Structures are given as structure tokens and as C-alpha cells.
Amino acid sequence: MSEQIPLTCLGSGAALTDGRQWNSLLIDGRILLDLPPTAVVEMQRLGLDLTEIDVIFISHLHADHNFGLPFLLLEYCIRRERDRPIYIVGPPGIEEQTETLCDLAWPDMRKAGFEPHVPVSYVEVTQDGEYRAGELEFTAVQMEHFTLTAFGYRFDYRDRTIAYTGDTGECKQLGRLLGGADVAIIELTHPEASEDPGHLDAPAVAYWLKRLRSEGARVFATHMSGTPDPIEGLEICEDGRTYQI
Questions:
Q1: Does the N-terminal or the C-terminal CB of the chain have fewer CB atoms within 10 Å?
Q2: Number of domains in the chain
Q3: Cβ proximity of 165 and 151 under 8 Å
Q4: Taking 90 as the threshold, does the pLDDT of residue 2 lie above it?
Q5: SS in 3 state form for the chain?
Q6: Amino acid 133: pLDDT
Q7: Does residue 79 fall inside a structural domain?
Q8: Domain that holds residue 191
Q9: 1 domain residue, yes or no
Q10: Over 60: is that where the pLDDT of 1 sits?
Q11: CA 243 – CA 245 distance, rounded (Å)
Q12: C-alpha to C-alpha distance for 38 and 20, rounded to whole angstroms
């Protein structure tokens, strides 16, 4: 049996949340799935080591998914340093927007000579395909999130295939992203049926749950605006909890 991997929920809320921290998940202390402003504080509260993060996957350029980047990089400007790079993966514009956010957040720091004491390497995902962030190979699949460029990510890590939707509405690409995964992390913005084309609701997640469970996958729900009714076999992410996958 393969050694278990910790999956820590730093937040499970949508942009309009019911009090949950904004959605962010950390795999084995090293791979971060989205980075909202609340994630750095939650990592500190849980006693997690910010310097162990190697790859940050940003699904799309909405505030509740990437506005935590200035706070993490501030840590490396002032309190932390390391030699190996941090890889920030995201859609086109991720590097430019991150630098703009940092300058807006801390407008005097660059002029004063403060720069992150860590090599920062950006991997801009322009289309569906295979990519690499350091030693981690991954597949990017474009999702349907209104008119925004948004990606789901899939990668193999320590004998597990892990797939993460980011934000998406119902679309045929979900099958390509999630099919055959050992661990599927799915957004569930609406706890009841909804006509929102840019997000999934409970009936849609129940459909994918049935299919994925038949393939032996563990299925986690995150990015929730409210707590859905229990769905058998679906693991509802709880803020601050670590799961073994």
C-alpha cells in the first residue's frame, strides 16, 4: 500500500462565502492549489512551513484565487529565504498581474530595494497540454468559467493521480480532467440547483461523484458558498482539516 499524503484544507469557501476561508488546498506541504489572501494566515495558524511550498497552481485570475501571492512574497522579502525556486503556475498574465499586485500592495518596497529572497519562476499556461514546473509534470485543461481563461490541473504525485477543477461550470472537459484520477477535488459553489453557467452545483457534483466513485476515486468538494446537504461518498472539505489521501 502506498504511503499516505496529507491534503490540508486551508479554506473551502467561494468568493461569496458563508464564513469559510477562501478556497485553497495544500498537498504534502509542497503543492498549493490556489492562493487567496487568507491562505498564508491559515498556514501560519496551523504551524505549516511556508518555505516548503514548491509549486503554486493558480486556476484563474480572480481575487479569491490569487490575491494571496503578495502576502506570500512579502514573507520572502522580509522574513524568509531559500535557494530553490518557487514555481507559480497560472493562465496568461499571471506574472504581470502578480508584479502589479505586489506594487499596489506594497508601493514603496521595490523602490527601497526589497525583493523576494527566493527565485520565483512563472509557468504561464496558454492552452490545454502538458507542462512542467520544476520536477512536477502536469496537464492543464481549460475549464468554462464565464468568459475568463481558467484551467483545471492534473498531475501524478507519489503514485497518486490528483485532479483539481478550479472554478468551472458544467463542461465536457471535466471528463478529460477528472477521469481515472485517484483523487478528484471539485468545486461546489452552489449547495442547491443553480443556473449559474460558471460554477457547479450539488446536482452536477452528484453526477460526477457517481462516475468517479465507480472508478475508485476519492472525491472532495471545495469552493462552497454554503454547506450542501450530505451526498454519500462525497467528502466536504473543512477549513483547517488535514485529510490523508
A1: N
A2: 1
A3: no
A4: no
A5: CCCCCEEEEEECECCCCCCCCECEEEECCCEEECCCHHHHHHHHHCCCCHHHCCEEECCCCCHHHHCCHHHHHHHHHHCCCCCCCEEEEECCCHHHHHHHHHHHHCCCCCCCCCCCCCCEEEEECCCCEEEEECCEEEEEEECCECCECCEEEEEEECCEEEEECCCCCCCCHHHHHHCCCCEEEEECCECCCCCCCCCCEHHHHHHHHHHHHHCCCEEEEECECCCCCCCCCEEECCCCCEEEC
A6: 98
A7: yes
A8: 6-244
A9: no
A10: no
A11: 6
A12: 10
Residue 64 domain-assigned?
A: yes
Nearest CA among 165, 196, 199 for reference residue 179: 165
**Do the domain assignments include residue 231?**
yes
Closest to 9 measured CA to CA, from 162, 234, 230, 221: 221
pLDDT for position 29: 98
Q: What is the mean pLDDT of residues 130-140?
A: 98
User: pLDDT of 223-245, one tens digit each?
Assistant: 999 999 999 999 999 999 999 99
CATH of the domain at 240: 3.60.15.10
